[in-house]
Amino acid sequence: MKTIKLLLGLLVLGTLATSCYTEVLVGDTFVDEPVFNTDQVLSSYDLWYVDINATRGGGEVPFLQRAFTISFVNGTLYANNNMVGIGKTGNGLGIDVGYYDPLNGTVEIDHDVDGLWLLEVYVVSNGTLELRDPRSNTSYFLEGYQANTFDYDFVFYDNVDYFLQEYDAWEKTYTSEEGALNDFDEENYLRFLPGLFQSSVDLPGTRIPDLQWDFEGNYQVYNVENDETLKTLTLAYDFMGNDYFELYVINDSTIELYHPDSGTVYEFRGRGYQQYLKTGKNPTVKKRKKISNPTMKVKRSRKI
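Given the sequence above, the corresponding structure tokens read:
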């Protein structure tokens, strides 16, 4: 038997426990356990951030694996499955992805794509829930936030890898006059796939289906020690060496790459946005996985 970790002395979730009790047999003794109101617990926060790195078990609940946040609102399940538009789509809650029915300690979810799921609900602590799939013995841990205090920028920077993959291509729209000439000046398009990047020297304005991907290799996003708002990016070209950039997110369709070796600033704009569950694209393509970007001990080079 799994114990419901209900902390009655804590605020918000703790106060949602009812005064009802149920008898549970532990060994040869009956003990009283508090019963909480599942519906009130699920709706106690506007958004639940899916802490994918805390997931336990070898199975998978597909719609939780895709979502950055989920929300339970009057029987409708909402999710932010994309970095693009997060904080704006659905007043911050994301898109409607299905329905839910709160039961006694469980929630039945009818997802638009993934069908019916019966998940066990456990209160871990104030502001943290565990949703467990008993079929695969897999648990997801959710952190509760109100919409007006949710740090969308943190979520964005914490998941930059997925943001880069949400466009079919990134087109170079600006190159600074400052900076030494270098080979990257010739590249006008980038594309990011899981663990792989491609680049093209095709002319600006080329249709995405007509792009010829001239180069490819592995890429890596890094955290920067003592600088939470800076990411760095390395492009490891096959047979051509590496390029190193400071990565700046301007908005949800524009990034800047600063090339310290040459002192050049490049601006790229996303083309071909992939909105999951709202297009004909396969919704199983993008799934989050446990990831911990390595950390670089570098100093910000670009002067802003």
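The first helix runs from residue 38 to 42. Try to locate this feature in the token string yourself.
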